[in-house]
Amino acid sequence: MAGDGFEMAFLSRHITDMGFTPAQSAVVFTFYGLAAALAAWASGVVAELITPQRAMMIGFVLWIVMHTLFMSLGLGLRNYPLMVLFYGIRGLAYPLFIYSFMMMLVQVLPREKLAAATGWFWAMYSVGIGVIGSYLPSLTIPMLGETGTLWLAIIWVASGGILAYFSLRKVPVDRSRVNLPMRDKMTEMARAVTILFTNQNVFYACLIRIINTLSLFGFAIIMPLLFVDRLGFTISEWLQIWAVFFFVTIFTNIFWGLTGEKLGWIRQVRWFGCLGMAISSLTFYYLPLYAGHNFWVALIPAVMLGIFVAAFVPMTAVFPTLEPHHKGAAVSIYNLSAGLSNFVAPAIASVMLPFFDIVGVVWAYTGLYVFRLAC
């Protein structure tokens, strides 16, 4: 996830610096998010049908190939259609890798340990995509440039993929569906859609999970435009602020994973997740706008966002609990929700930016958190 996260907080601005509009930049991320949503949806069932290890390796190889094409033929040639195409296809890769690993956790661990384990899962996700993925580029960009830093990501992803191959290949996963007839496999894949209509609780949980990380994915796109272009922060300062946000989630993911068992999953999600994210999203925009180019003040909303976004951690355990006889389909819906968040956040930005600017996008995200709180 470190390699996948290298571009997260600066690629949108990198694309605009090449002469494309902010809306065009957001469209690139929108197609990426759509592909990520599709891969995330399929990963749970695919992992059940071919084993999590094989699904992870498919995602790993796909990432390496598509990133190389994106860098050489997309960004390298400044070819916008190829940028959208290859970056979009690359969006299939990381969800297939990480959510297949999550399916492995669901298969192997007992229910009473699952919430805490997923807390650790998301903590390591934050270490990779956020802390290393954001902080390291703040050091390498002055030396290698933005393009060199994007190429460096391949080394990190390759290291993670190779490590996963050798360390996880002997994990005793559930293989009961691997040898199913193709017709039965297609039925199981279809269940990853029909479960939304046959289980109302899964549908509502899906909506909550989509809203969960809107600010996470959206702010990575719109906030560099505010902090760097308007408030005078350097790209390295912005990356360090974003890295602090993810650094906080290392600890809060674990904290909320354990706290949810005592406080109650839904109560925690409602009052600390939805309400907390609404407040911290507004603070992330208005406090730096008021304080100006003040690095230490800008860290306050980053810490707040890191505290409250992790309050949604129990949602990982909620989905298979709501559909215990079809855990693969339930996890696929969870993954779909996470992927759709990656799609919806930049989609909202691409629609709102031309008409309502950055503040309109921030209020759109906030309104959805409040809507989910009220419902």
UniProtKB/TrEMBL annotation:
PROSITE patterns: MFS. The chain crosses the membrane at residues 26-50, 57-77, 83-102, 114-136, 148-168, 202-227, 239-259, 271-289, 295-319. The keyword Cytoplasm does not apply. One of its GO terms (molecular function) is transmembrane transporter activity. It is found in: Cell membrane. It comes from the Bacteria. Keywords: Cell membrane, Membrane, Transmembrane, Transmembrane helix. Residues 1-375 form the Major facilitator superfamily (MFS) profile domain. Gene3D superfamilies: MFS general substrate transporter like domains. InterPro entries: MFS, MFS_dom, MFS_Efflux_Transporters, MFS_trans_sf, Polyol_permease-like. Coiled coil: none annotated. The keyword Cell membrane applies. GO terms for cellular component: plasma membrane. It is a multi-pass membrane protein. NCBIfam families: 2A0118. This is Alpha-ketoglutarate permease. The lineage of its organism: Bacteria, Pseudomonadati, Pseudomonadota, Gammaproteobacteria, Enterobacterales.
